[in-house]
Design a protein that fits this description.
It contains two helices and four strands. It is an alpha+beta fold and about 120 residues long. It has a domain of about 55 residues: Surface presentation of antigens (SPOA). The radius of gyration is 22 Å and the shape is extended.
Length: about 120
């Protein structure tokens, strides 16, 4: 079996089909999303951010207050694997915290920020 010379091999950009709703496979059938339903992702809710020197970080103790870059009452960001997919507000359901989604980022915007 011969190995092609990388200096003379033809190179072309890979083409991928759209994975959005209604996307079809190469055979013309519906895409089977059941293949990825059990893939674990990290879901995080971000209240805000703060930037501080390590000196100040090391001086934090119980009861310390860290000022965040958001105003009280602003929506939280919902991040999946570090990419914002929605915004929402905190709710309490049966003595547990939850989030009510108020805005979902479009698929196009998610793809732009994921790059």
């Amino acid at each position: 079996m011969s190995v092609p010379d990388p200096k003379t091999a033809a190179v072309s950009r890979a083409q991928f089909n759209d994975l959005g709703p209604g996307a079809v496979t190469g055979g013309g059938g519906e895409m089977n999303l059941n293949l990825i339903l059990d893939v674990a992702v990290t879901l995080a809710l971000e209240v805000g951010r703060a930037r501080m020197p390590v000196r100040d970080l090391l001086q934090l103790a119980p009861g310390a207050i860290v000022e965040l870059d958001r105003l009280a009452g602003e929506p939280l960001d919902v991040l999946v694997n570090g990419v914002r997919v929605a915004r929402g507000e905190v709710v309490v359901v049966n003595d547990k915290f939850g989030i009510r989604l108020t805005d979902v980022v479009s698929a196009t915007m998610r793809m732009e920020h994921a790059r």
